[in-house]
Amino acid sequence: MTRPTLLDNVTHRHLRVHAERSAALGDARQSALALPAEFRQLQAHFPIVFQLVEGAAAGTGFQPVALFGLEEGQNLFLTDTGWDAPVVPMALQRDPFMIGRAPDDSLQLHIDMDSPRIVRPEDGEVGAAIFMPHGGFSDYLDHVVQLMEHLHAQAQHLPVFIEALTRHQLLEPFVIDIESTSGEPGRLSGLFTIHEERLAALPGDALEALAREGHLLPIYMQIASLQQLQDLVERQSKL
């Protein structure tokens, strides 16, 4: 459950946030939303796949995610010393902040007061300050605001990207055969990827339109990212 609250420098002047990565802070998750604008950075470290999710941001039900594990609740990039990758998807970086709407439909910054990342004064713990002593934004909050603005802007393009993929019937289901941490054989299903043969068979004008609309690069980045599936298997084998 979440408890989003409008962030303000009076009510929340003493709050701090745990900015590091750990299971205790909510990072023990198998995947996170991946936006096409970050596919280039993510593909070198995580497999990017599509899931058919009810109520997905794309409207059609398809949503791209970066995979962190092969089992529910498993994040193979979490270690005793933190996050074992040079990049973190924007959707993961944003916690515990979220975007809300004011009555006039303008954007507002909210904070999830039930997040384990929240550090209250009485907790006696160290964390990143949200506000400066006199109410100004901290450097950390400046970064969060820029991140949320970029995340929101890029999320607006996601439905267009998904629509292009579905219009050209470029998504196909696939499964991953795995061995669970208990040694039992299993299968990760409910995933979709780009149909490479169908992509290659598109007429020139369709490919040109995909390139012009900025869709072709993330398409190829998603295909390239599947090379990282072997890395997940290897990480799991070391558990």
What's the topology here?
Blueprint: E1 4-6, E2 16-17, E3 31-33, H1 39-42, E4 48-52, E5 62-67, E6 78-79, E7 82-83, H2 90-93, E8 97-101, E9 107-112, E10 118-119, E11 128-129, H3 139-155, H4 158-167, E12 171-179, E13 185-194, H5 196-200, H6 204-212, H7 216-225, H8 229-237
Antiparallel strand pairs: 1-9, 2-10, 2-11, 3-5, 4-5, 4-13, 6-7, 8-9, 12-13
Describe the structure.
This protein has 239 residues and is α+β, with helices and mostly antiparallel strands. It has one domain. 28% of the residues lie in helices and 24% in strands. It contains eight helices and 13 strands. It has a five-stranded antiparallel beta sheet with strand order 3-5-4-13-12. A three-stranded antiparallel beta sheet has the order 1-9-8, covered by helices on one side. It is globular, with a radius of gyration of 20 Å. The model has no long low-confidence stretch (mean pLDDT 93).
Question: Largest sheet, order of strands side by side?
Answer: 3-5-4-13-12
Largest sheet: 5 strands, antiparallel
Number-wise, the strands total: 13
Say what oligomer this is. single chain
Roughly what fraction of the amino acids lie in strands?
Answer: 15-25%
SSE ordering: EEEHEEEEHEEEEHHEEHHHH
User: Helices and strands: which structural class?
Assistant: alpha+beta
